[in-house]
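Worked problem 6 (solution included).
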Amino acid sequence: MIKKILVTGAAGFIGHNLSKRLLADGRTVVGLDNLNTYYDPELKKSRLAELMNHEQFKHADFDMADREKMEKLFEREQFDGVVNLAAQAGVRYSLINPSSYVDTNLVGFVNILEGCRHTNVKHLLYASSSSVYGANTKMPFSVHDNVDHPVSLYAASKKAGELMAHSYSHLFNLHTTGLRFFTVYGPWGRPDMALFLFTKAILEGRPIDVFNNGNMERDFTYIDDIVEGVVRLIDTIPQANPDWSGDQPDPATSYCPWRVYNIGNNSKEKLMRYIEVLEDCLGKKAEKNFLPMQDGDVPATYANVDDLVREIDFKPATTIEEGVKNFVDWYRGYYKV
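Solution. The predicted structure is:
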């Protein structure tokens, strides 16, 4: 078992939930998070406070783009494994502040790769994104399909992370696993994502912005399913694919110890149905402001998870009815509304 783990973005949505699970499983977690102001730091502090109650958790508070501090952290702690969840997230924000994506998703990730390389980390897992599928329209999205046509800088930075990881797997035999997450939602979720924005607006009596005139489909994936997939993959160390061929290269595997997986619910849900479920949970109808598609966005996402099922015998299955209700219950409790 990978016992001592660095979780970057530990005060973030996925990082917080994953860290709680790892600690409950008896592992030691060092959580790196600089509590930046991309969204309300108070929510991040509340997540972090839950983790700080555990004696097997330590918090490192600095930016992972700081090369010197990252080197010292890896040398001091000697991690068995790393789960890199820290990122500048969000498709739309990448149109406004592109440099922040370079600093965290590229520079910061290189520092992670270097730390793993020089301290013999056994397994690096890192968050990629369904956004890498970009202009692809063949559904469901498969890790065995080519993903060379991103439609946002965010997506491009995530694809770049997969490529950088491959180079380290090739050069230094670093075992790396990329995790393409599909529209994660649930308790402690991100305030910049649709479910959080919709819930807040509906409860405050404000209209919600519905892009592409509501003609959106998403593979909504509940946070507990994401965490379960990641936990199972931590101890599934990737190996070279002996059948890999440069004549017909498989984009999901390699001749070196590198893999990518989709973690999604393996179902498309219409955005309007998602909103209906939320309205039912809140007991209140939404006033809808229909808008055109935003630059950098895609009309639909849908994950093929065959590789996940085959490798770790797990398939996400939480329904939006169950997941949205759990989020609403958390939101009402946390914000006392």
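Discussion: The chain has a mean pLDDT of 96.
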